[in-house]
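To the wet lab folks,

You asked to see what we're planning to order before we commit. Fair enough. Below is the target structure as tokens, and below that is the sequence we designed to fit it. If anything looks off to you, flag it before the synthesis order goes out.
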């Protein structure tokens, strides 16, 4: 297993910038997760001290069965290994292994005005739909800020759907630093070139909780079924109608699965090709693209104890970083015994 550039005796001693990103084990990894974030998780592991968290505390806002959450957490480790994270080049951790994340969240809670949290679109949508939002749903951006800065990460690979949350993390850091001194760097988002990926309904963000996903490790038949059910350009009713690739989610996804996407989009625009044909081709390409990763995932899943080994190695790597940060924070805010106390 790798070592992050940290000496446990002295705390973080790295000059490399640090990356952190969290992913919720709230369901199977999907195309949105992959194109929006996981591609960059893999790319950044060589350039930065990279830490990736399976944020199971966050997933508790949507997964309410303990056994299920534990299974989904293990599954997400396998997903990340299969897409290309290498425990020799990054640390993969389980958020709940570190109660310090929640401690820092509470400290931030004493700094953050409630009005900042009430701006959160997920929270506002829930209220508009008349849902009884949990306090966890209101405050999860505070936990997200704690997850990132407890490692003093300066770069955060996330999908573009997370832009507002990351801005809030930056505001939280500024508010904390104003009160207690310059302890945390302001984290910056790192995006891929993918837009926010729409779900198979073509209407909302592809999202585990919306049930509109294409899971990247689904069986080929299932991927075909899901792609064939995708909503395309609603104005293209007959095969001979010209399509609008700019509003067709299938055409947009082709961009990521072949160099000939402009020709494919032209085929739709001129009605040279039909939606069924374009969907079949997309399904085949998605299946082929993820085939080696699916096979790798199956091999890793068969190795008993592998997931827990990866998490234990990740935990050993990050613990000194997080302990150093929390010692600094507790000293600054005045909790615990304090430095130099006999
Ligand atoms: N549709 C998307 N397009 C681009 N990026 C996306 N991400 C998620 N959906 C899209 C990015 O994937 C990373 C991990 O996301 P997450 O699972 O932690 O949380 P999420 O954004 O809330 O994903 P879901 O699928 O929508 O989960 P649920 O339904 O449980 O809330 C993030 O970097 C995210 O930007």
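Sequence we intend to order:
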């Amino acid at each position: 297993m790798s070592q992050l550039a940290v000496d446990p005796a002295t705390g973080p001693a790295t000059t490399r910038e640090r990356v952190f990103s969290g992913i919720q084990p709230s369901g199977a990894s999907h195309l949105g997760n992959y194109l929006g974030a996981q591609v960059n998780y893999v790319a950044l592991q060589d350039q930065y001290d990279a830490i990736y968290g399976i944020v199971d505390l966050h997933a508790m806002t949507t997964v309410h069965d303990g056994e299920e959450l534990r299974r989904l957490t293990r599954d997400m480790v396998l997903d990340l290994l299969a897409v290309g994270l290498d425990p020799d080049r990054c640390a993969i951790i389980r958020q709940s292994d570190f109660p310090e994340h929640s401690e820092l969240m509470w400290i931030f809670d004493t700094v953050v005005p409630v009005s900042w949290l009430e701006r959160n679109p997920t929270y506002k949508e829930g209220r508009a739909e008349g849902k009884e939002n949990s306090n966890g749903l209101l405050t999860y951006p505070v936990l997200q800020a704690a997850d990132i800065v407890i490692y003093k990460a300066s770069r955060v690979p996330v999908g573009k759907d997370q832009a507002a949350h990351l801005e809030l993390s930056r505001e939280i850091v500024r508010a904390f630093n104003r009160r207690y001194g310059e302890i945390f760097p302001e984290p910056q988002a790192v995006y891929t070139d993918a837009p926010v990926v729409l779900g198979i309904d073509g209407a909302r963000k592809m999202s585990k909780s919306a049930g509109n996903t294409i899971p990247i490790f689904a069986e080929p038949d299932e991927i075909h079924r899901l792609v064939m059910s995708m909503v395309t350009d609603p104005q293209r009713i007959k095969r001979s109608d010209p399509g609008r690739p700019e509003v067709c989610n299938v055409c947009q996804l082709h961009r990521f699965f072949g160099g000939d996407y402009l020709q494919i989009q032209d085929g739709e625009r001129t009605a040279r090709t039909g939606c069924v044909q374009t969907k079949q081709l997309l399904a085949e390409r998605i299946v082929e693209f993820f085939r080696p990763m699916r096979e790798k995932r199956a091999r890793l899943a068969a190795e008993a104890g592998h997931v827990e080994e990866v998490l234990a190695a990740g935990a050993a790597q990050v613990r000194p970083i997080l302990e150093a940060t929390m010692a600094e924070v507790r000293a600054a805010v005045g909790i615990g015994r304090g430095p130099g106390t006999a």
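Structural context that might help your review: The first strand starts at residue 6 and ends at 7. Residues 220-298 form a domain with the Tyrosyl-Transfer RNA Synthetase fold (CATH 1.10.240.10).

Thanks,
Computational group
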